[in-house]
Amino acid sequence: MSASAPWFGQEAAWQEWTAAIASGRMHHAWLLSGPKGLGKRSFARAAAAELVRLPGAPVPDPLAHPDIHLLEHLPANDDEARKKAEGKPYQTRRNITVDQVRAMIRRLATKPTLGERRAVVVDPADDLEKSAVNALLKALEEPPAGTYFLLVTHQPGRLLPTIRSRCRVLRFAALSEDGLDAVLLREAPHASAAARAAAIAAAQGSPGMALDFVEHDLGAIHQLMTRILQSGDGDFALRGALAEEIGARPARDRQLAALELARSVLVRELGGASRARQQRIIAAHAALARLSTQAPTYNFDPGLLIMEIGGLLASAAMPREAAG
């Protein structure tokens, strides 16, 4: 299958989805479950388009079809909305709001526009406000005829059990190294073999993460993070080099990619570590996870943030605790 397919590397999930459509006994709610960067967003849109496609008709554009409803993060404010309209990078709100869910439910009061089916994609369901979760739950409990829900989730454990119990789960698998390399060769043909190798090593099977690492030129940062984790940084020299490498005014996307890279470096180190060191790695990873949830909306100083990342890696270093 071509690496350009929206479900590349997720053939089993796609086969399960299309078989369910063909069966005539389609479950009304689905959880698209797996770590970030595995292609769940593209898959959800392609799956929604396949669901509403009329017999004999071409697959429609999921962003323009009247029977595909997308619930995702809105722009943070009017200025960011203008950036989105102009095709520029923009900041989003932290959560998907209850007003968005209620507006969607009002639209479900009518029949589908073009056929007998419609799809609601919630991306990601992890970021629904508490009141939005409750509103969505009511729709899942009494779904209108012909309405099917696709809930993208990176952390299904964060969802209410009552949400999970009403959904059929589609699990997304990590890609092989060959699969990741195929994606990088297609999407980032400019990347050197060394850059691709570093991205593949750090991405944990996630094509999205691998592309982030290549796009943001994180090869040197990856090397520094690995050195800190291996030998510590008692004199702060490596952390200083890390701050210099990321730059004085890095884009927020680059900071977020560096955070994800640090988490990946820790995860790769976990398997071969002693039990005592595993505890330090887990503690450092938990702290990085908290930073990752805060970084998209908090105005962190980039230099202080990268030093904090370096310090957490140093706290898990071998052969001794070397936070410095």
From TrEMBL:
InterPro entries per record: DNA_Rep/Repair_Clamp_Loader, P-loop_NTPase
Transmembrane domains' residue ranges: none
Superkingdom of origin organism: Bacteria
Segments forming a coiled coil: none
PANTHER family, per database record: DNA POLYMERASE III SUBUNIT DELTA, REPLICATION FACTOR C / DNA POLYMERASE III GAMMA-TAU SUBUNIT
Protein name per the record: AAA family ATPase
